[in-house]
Amino acid sequence: MQTENSLRDHILQLEEKLLQPDIRKSSNEIEQLLADDFMEIGCSGRNYNRQQVIEALQNESTAKMTISDFEIMNLAETVVLATFRETKFNAVNRIENESLRSSIWKMFGDKWKMIFHQGTLTTNL
Description:
The protein has 125 residues and is of the alpha+beta class. Helices cover 27% and strands 48% of the residues. Strands 2-1-6-5-4-3 form a six-stranded mixed beta sheet. It starts with a helix and ends with a strand.
């Protein structure tokens, strides 16, 4: 098992990878990062499965997004909860929205994959 700091850095890198426009547009890349039974509760309150997320990302407009206040908590030896704030910027680099995010990552063999994600919009811009 990785040390706490290296595990935190690794999970943060995976979360940041999911924000990259070229990764988001690649169904192959997303399939590598999301578990087969992945589910998401979006900021809208709607539930999405892995295939729905992959399809939605194909039609998404490109936006710059950043992560702050990143933390992890070990839930089990091979399961980690990540929490953070995501800031999304519009085309003129102004904050479009901010949300609180949580993801559960699970080790499958030697790869971490996301099994759950939830986003909650915040009101304090």
